[in-house]
Amino acid sequence: MDILSTVNSNDIILTGDRTTGQLHLGHYVGSLRNRVILQDRCQQFLLLADAQALTDNMGNYLKVRDNVLQVALDYLAVGIDPAKSTIFIQSLVPELTELASYYLNLVTVARLERNPTIKDEIKQRGYERDIPVGFLTYPAAQAADITAFRATVVPVGADQIPMIEQTNEIVRRFNSSVAGDVLVEARAVVPAAGARLPGIDGKAKMSKSLGNALPLSASPDDIRQAVKMMYTDPGHLRVEDPGRVDGNVVFTYLDAFESDSTQLAELKERYQRGGLGDAVIKKQLEERLQALLAPIRARREEFARDPGQVMAMLKQGTQQARTVAARTLADVKAAMGLNYY
Ligand code: TRP
What we know:
Elements: E1 12-18, H1 25-38, E2 43-49, H2 50-54, H3 61-78, E3 85-89, H4 94-103, H5 109-114, H6 116-125, H7 133-136, H8 138-148, E4 153-155, H9 161-178, E5 187-189, H10 220-229, H11 249-257, H12 261-273, H13 278-304, H14 307-335
Parallel strand pairs: 1-2, 2-3, 4-5
């Protein structure tokens, strides 16, 4: 179901991004544009997950550090408003680490190793048995991120569902071991089917590491090149030939970015009938993308001119986040009797 139809004013949203690179069009379609709408509906916390990014990037700590600003610029560029959303830096909220240290007593190594996302990531990274402990246990740290803010909704990609399941397991275990409702369970909400944008090469996922992403800061020329390179229907050789719409990357993108659905339906019909060239559909897609990204790029450049101001905004958000996390931590410790004086 679409996230916008499931969230109400009592919900508390928490979500975040690892700071390993700039955000791209896939992030925009799958989550950023929703965040802009949801910040007017309920409380929303946005986490710049630098500490989590370090769990598999210790050799690259400057990349993680530098992308805190880059991701913050992406947020601001799309219209996330720090007066409405609390944007904060994970590593500057030590309460999260402290909370996670207690949660680690409620999870087993076997359970962490069974987490399907962790399992995949261990394989992808080739860790075998040499798994950094911080990496293996990041689901418990993520449980801290979520519960510290008493989040009820966690908008994430489908690969993150196991993290929310494990968070809720920790919540139930904690609450039953202290016999109280101290922590709150959260629900994962994944992007609707139509909100998953494939890479510009047509591969299932747009991702910087796959080299098939279009960053939000893309120049007009980058956008032109990306559309030019997109596959259409390999059997559509001459303009007169009937073309396929299914699996045609240009049409998949038009589905996401063309708001005139009647006109798009007509375009598909003409393409399938034959007589419509790839150049026409590509031109239309390029126009839509240029129009979408031009104001985003302009705002991004404007904010980038004053990084000090962006950092001051992050400092303020981080202070707000710390206040909230400290309250939850105090409740958690009191529930365990760790309120000595
Ligand atoms: N694991 C998330 C990702 O890789 C980032 C993240 C960290 C997160 N903490 C979170 C997402 C808490 C949601 C809630 O994208």
